[in-house]
Design a protein that fits this description.
The protein is built from 2 helices and 2 strands; from the N terminus they run ααββ. By secondary structure, the chain is mainly alpha-helical. The chain has one domain. β1 and β2 form a beta hairpin. The N and C termini lie far apart (34 Å).
Length: 143
């Protein structure tokens, strides 16, 4: 029985990723080949600290004013893997975090010039992809 449950969670997670990928592709098409900005594809910084409202705020996923993919998505649940049972404390409550999926830091415009140093990408210097057409090595399918 546990294998069936784990399989269902895995299928659910893949389906969520597929829906987010489709939303991303729609965004790229509407944005003249630009990837969603990072940060900015969603707003908020998730962690496990108590009273960080970003951990539980669904508006950060669904409000088009703060989430670039919001016009292409309708359900906040697609941002979270069904197997993710992580919780955080907010006041005296223990609440589920709203998101477990994130975007690679090398994808999307981060507001810095392309030749700027990005120490968080490590060394050697890694590529930064701002447009979908920038993704040539590795190919988009391998990214």
């Amino acid at each position: 029985m546990k294998i069936t449950h784990n399989l269902a969670q895995g299928i659910g997670c893949l389906n969520n990723l597929r829906q987010l990928e489709f939303a991303c592709l729609l965004y790229i098409e509407d944005s003249r080949d630009f990837l969603p900005p990072n940060p900015g594809w969603v707003t908020g910084w998730l962690d496990f600290q108590a009273n960080n409202r970003d951990n539980t705020n669904l508006n950060l996923l669904l409000d088009p004013r703060v989430a670039k993919l919001a016009p292409y998505t309708r359900a906040a649940a697609i941002y979270k893997c069904p197997a993710d049972r992580s919780i955080v404390k907010e006041g005296s409550q223990r609440l589920a975090r709203v998101r477990s999926i994130s975007m690679n830091v090398a994808l999307g415009d981060d507001g810095l010039p392309l030749n700027a140093s990005r120490t968080w990408l490590g060394t050697p210097k890694y590529r930064k992809y701002v447009r979908q057409s920038d993704i040539t090595a590795p190919s988009p399918a391998m990214m």
